[in-house]
Structure formats: C-alpha cells, structure tokens
Amino acid sequence: MTVYIIQRVMRMIPLLFLLSLIAFLIIQLPPGDYLTEHINALRASGRDVDEAEVERLMKQYALDRPMHVQYLTWIQNILLKGSFGQSFQWGRPVNEVIGDKMALTFLLAILTTIFVWTISVPIGIYVSVRQYTFTDYLFTMIGFIGLAVPGFLLAMVVMYFSFAWFGLKVGGLFSPAFELEPWSIAKFQNMLTRIWVPVLILGIGGTAHIIRIMRATMLDELRKQYVTVARSKGLSEFAVLMNYPVRIAINPLISSLGFLLPWIISGGTVVEIVLNLPTAAVVLYRALLSQDMFLAGSFILLVGTLALVGSLLADIALAAVDPRIRFGSVEEM
Amino acid sequence: MASDQNGAGARETLLEIRDLKTHFALEEGTVRAVDGVDLDVRRRQVVGVVGESGCGKSMTAMSIMRLIPPPGQIVEGEIRFHRPFDDRTDAADIVDLAQFESNDRQLRDIRGNQISMVFQEPMTALSPVRTVGKQITEAILLHQDVNKAEARDIAIETLARVKMPNPEQRFDDYPFQLSGGMRQRAVIAMALACRPQLLIADEPTTALDVTTEAQILDLMRELQAESDMSILYITHNLGVVAEMAEDVVVMYLGKVVERTDVDSIFYNPKHPYTRGLLNSIPRLEDVLQDKREKLNAIEGMVPSPYQRLQGCSFHPRCPDFMPGVCDEAEPQLIQLEEGHAVRCHLYT
C-alpha cells in the first residue's frame, strides 16, 4: 500500500509541471494583459499614470521580458515565496482574494456530494433490484428531468418562488447583515441556513447521474455468481446486497470523487452567478473577463492541483476498498 | 417409496421431491425448466443427477435452495426436507421448502446451514474484494452461536478439512490470490462450515482441469464418508457419476427419465436416452483397436425450450421410436423392479 501511494505521488510531479505550464499559457493567450489595458485606459481618460509604479510592477512580474522568463518568475514566486502575485482587479494579493472563496467552494462541493450520495446511492441500489418495474421507470424519469433541466433555470425558479411565496431572498450565502462581517460563529450559522439552496440546485443534476451509474454497475454485479453464492449461505437479501454487489458497484463512484471540485467550479458557474454566491467559480469567471492574469492563472493552477490531489485521494480510497488494486500494484513492482 | 430398501439397508429419508415444476414465464413462451420431477435423497447417500445442458438438473438444485433467478417460479410440487432431530419438539421436523417465500426467515435458517450448495464456477463464486476467511465465517456467524474468534477457528478447521494448504494463511487471502483448485476447496469449505445434512454440488469440477478434478472428487468422497452428510451431485459427466454416486437420476427436458442405482445405470440401462448417453462415451479399447472412427452421438438436438412436444419428449431423437405411441401419450414413470424406475413406452 505504501509503495502504491509513493508511486502514485511520484507520478503527480510531471503532471503538476504540465498543469502549471498550461495554466500559464491559457492566461497568456489573449492579446495584451491587465497592466497595459489599465495604463491605456488611464491614458485615454487623460489622467496621469505613475510611471514609477508601472515600472515597479513590470519588473516584479517580468512583464517586459520574454514569455518563458515570465513563466519562471511566476512559478518561482509561487514555489519559493508562496505568493501568487497581485490581483490587478482587486488591488490585493491573489492569496487574499482566493483564500475564503476556495474554502467556501470546498464546503459547497463537500455538502453537495454528501447530498447527492445519500440520495442517489440508495435509490440506485433500490432500482437495480427492481429493474423494469414502475419504481425503476419513475426514478429514471425523475432523474432524467433533473439531468435535463439546466441548473441556472432551476435556480431562478427556486429564487422566484421562495420570494413570491415565502418572501425569502435565497440569493447569496449570507444575510445582508453578515455579508461584509468577518468570520464568526453567527456568520457561519447564518450561512448554514442559506447554503442548502445551492446544494440542492447543484446536486439535482448530479443525483440523476449517480443513480444511473449505480444502477448500471449494480445490474452488472447482480448477475454474477458470487451473489447467488452469498444468498445460498442464508444471508438476508439486505446483507447479500450490502456485502457483495454494492461493495464492488460503489468503486466507479469512489474513483469519480476526484473530479468533484473541478465539476463544481466549471459546471456550477452559471448557477453560482445567478445565486450570487461568493465562490471560486464566480471569481474565476470575472478574472478571465477582465484579464486579471495572475488571479485567473492562480485559480486554474489551484483547481487543477486540487483535481490531481482529489484523484490521488480517490485512488488511495479505491485501493483501500479494492484489494485487486492494492495487490496489482505490488505485482507490477 | 420402494427404493427405501435399496443400497446399504433402510436409511431415513432426508429429502423428497414430489412432482416439482419450476417454470419461467418469458415473453417468448413458458420454459418448463423442471417439469414434474420426483427425487429422493436418503441420509448419507450420494445421488447423482445426469443429463445434457438444459435438461433442468441445475434448476432442480436451485429450486431446492429456492434460489431460482426471476422470472423462474415453482408452480407446483413439494420439496419435503426432513430436518434433523430437534430437542425442543422431540421429533424430526418435516418442512416443505417449496412453500416458503424465497427470502423467508425459516428458509434462510436452513440455507447454508442444513442444506448448502457448491457451485460450478470457483472463479466467480467468491467475491473478489473480501477475504476467503470473511466469506466463510459469514455463514458460521449467521447460523451458529459463536463469536468472531471461534468462527475463525471453525473456518480454519474447515479449510484444513478440505485439505487447503496453509489454512491459517489462506484465511486472510483474497480469492484472486488462490488457484482454481484452491478456490474450489474454499467454496467447498464455505458450504461445509456449518456441517450441512445435504450438500448440493452443481458440477463442482467442470471448470477445473482433470488432475484437480480428481483431487476434488476424492476430497468430496472422503468428506461424505467421514460425516453423515448426503450429497446431491449434479453433473453431465457419467464418469464422475460412476465414481461418486450410489443412486442415479437421469433427466431429459425437465423430467426424470430413469432412476436406479449406479450399477444398473451402467450395466442395465433401460431408457433409450440413458443408453444413448452411455453409448456416446468413447471406449479406450475401441480406439486402440481402431474399431471406431467417429464418436457416437444421440441423433438430433435438444428441442427448443419453448416447444411443448406431444407424447414423450424424447421421441424425435429416440432410436426406438414407436409411431402412434410415443408421439401420442406421455409415458409415466414405471417401476420395473425394486429401485429401478423408467419413463418409457417400451416397458408399458
């Protein structure tokens, strides 16, 4: 197992390097950068530009140098100083801007996953043992509706009805009173009363997906002889299901856990914009629009890294539950 | 039944199957997988069930275990199991397994405990993600009043009984770490862990190579001899029947066509189908003396399972076909002599 984990971590290093390169290329692709845009805008409006300040920023981020030097400067600052650079748009270091956004996104991702799994895994198991019955078709239909309705539309509908019927404003993660407050227990509690709306809306699409996966893999496993053998021991049907087919059918889901965060960030952006959530996806979207290159680049790098770490953790979890993977890696050595 | 006097003296009946019918209602029609089977197993007896693929022998076994896959259903008949002597009721208790719901509590108490089954494919009979030991102790913990440590001891002892090398280490192994023969030993150990009265073996050696097959057959004979267990041995291999069984039941298309002791099957077969089966075994002397170039086969194919034939179901392939008789009325099982019954118009 240890060998497997070390092997797996080693394999991540070249991937991380590639990721940083791609993140950097993406933010360099559009012509111009935030600084020149900014200076041009100031000049056009006839205002004075502090040449010294511009000079200093240019130097610090090597903006006047060739691209590979810019990349090296950027990555050096991250690796050696832990500094992701300056967000021009926010006028603050990227680290500050990202910090709690990332934490909130994480929280949202975890809560959504818990919600999706607690609903869809039991339903997936249930419909697999009731294949082609009314319940199976019913959940399939509900699932596909959930999959087909765009999240942002659902978000707007929920917002409209909660306001029209209950007078509730469900947008945002905090009540206006807490919006700008520093973190406190009261603010956290306030958040918990509101976070279920995005969790519900973001989760519904994923629910159908997981039900289908669970149902399909369960149907594959239920056909196998070891299930009949387990029944022949006299186990109750519930014990048979839980200890045998489910143990194996759950594996594809565990391995998909690694892509959770990228999924919330890329798939949930529109929903989060509609719901006015202070999450990473929204910040990334704005940073890309305004060519705030260090902010955008750092985000892409961070999200990519988290995806890699996520799939590492998912692989380790998978190895923990499936001995075939554990022993397979040992035999390779 | 008259067959009570057969074999090694009168022994108590353990299992009586009467007119068992297990049908599958499919869109294409009803498949009569088991269509009126009568079968008896007495204590400490090995009964062989032979027939081609699709003759209903496995479904008979699955019906006893009540593990028929849907949409299969027992539509008629009784499976009377004589449970062992019970201290509380002071009597051997007879239950009709066909009467239970397939997930019934009482049925589950018998399954894996008093009746257990060894399946055909040792490669897929064990879950790949749980240790061999876990899968064996499960049944022990379920049916016996023991704690985990005691269950482990029983499991290791059972693994030793089935001659698993290094049972202590194998206990913590995963199935994919074992060879085919070792897996089948593990599966047999799993079935024997609760010391059942009846072991149903559904072609337990078909997937194994010949050497391993011989070892497993030896093992099963030994295990049967040292305990007072009965075995219902299902196979298509007459050689295995000759080695294992005392009584033999020959099945064709869901029906028992001949039932007798093992010697009569080989030296005095009555039903044309049984004769055909025996004839299709290549004989070493014939091959050595170049007497035969081709293998003998029974003419024709097993008819489509949806088809329901008028008269005897074997008549289209039968060498002794009597027009106007065999394709008209269905023959009944006729008692020819003590313990020898046949379902054929030749004997009416």
From TrEMBL, chain A:
Keyword Cell membrane: yes
Origin superkingdom: Bacteria
Residue ranges crossing the lipid bilayer per the database entry: 12-29, 102-125, 137-166, 195-214, 260-287, 299-321
Keyword terms, alphabetized: Cell membrane, Membrane, Transmembrane, Transmembrane helix, Transport
Keyword Glycoprotein in annotation: no
Domain (ABC transmembrane type-1) ranges: 102-312
Pfam families linked to this entry: BPD_transp_1 (PF00528), BPD_transp_1_N (PF19300)
Compartments where located: Cell membrane
Record's bilayer topology term: Multi-pass membrane protein
InterPro entries in UniProt: BPD_transp_1_N (IPR045621), MetI-like (IPR000515), MetI-like_sf (IPR035906)
GO BP term, pick one: transmembrane transport
GO CC, alphabetical: plasma membrane
Family listed: Belongs to the binding-protein-dependent transport system permease family.
Protein name, UniProt field: ABC transporter permease
Species the sequence originates in: Caldilineaceae bacterium SB0661_bin_32
From TrEMBL, chain B:
GO cellular component: plasma membrane
One of the GO biological process terms: peptide transport
Keyword Chaperone: no
Cellular compartment(s): Cell membrane
InterPro entries given in the database record: AAA+_ATPase (IPR003593), ABC_Ni/Peptide_Import (IPR050388), ABC_transporter-like_ATP-bd (IPR003439), ABC_transporter-like_CS (IPR017871), Oligopep_ABC_C (IPR013563), P-loop_NTPase (IPR027417)
Secretion signal span: none
Keyword terms: ATP-binding, Cell inner membrane, Cell membrane, Membrane, Nucleotide-binding, Translocase, Transport
All residue ranges annotated as the ABC transporter domain in the record: 15-278
SMART domains named among the record's database cross-references: AAA
Pfam families: ABC_tran, oligo_HPY
Annotated membrane topology: Peripheral membrane protein
Molecular function, one GO term: ATP binding
Family the entry assigns: Belongs to the ABC transporter superfamily.
Protein name (Swiss-Prot/TrEMBL): ABC transporter ATP-binding protein
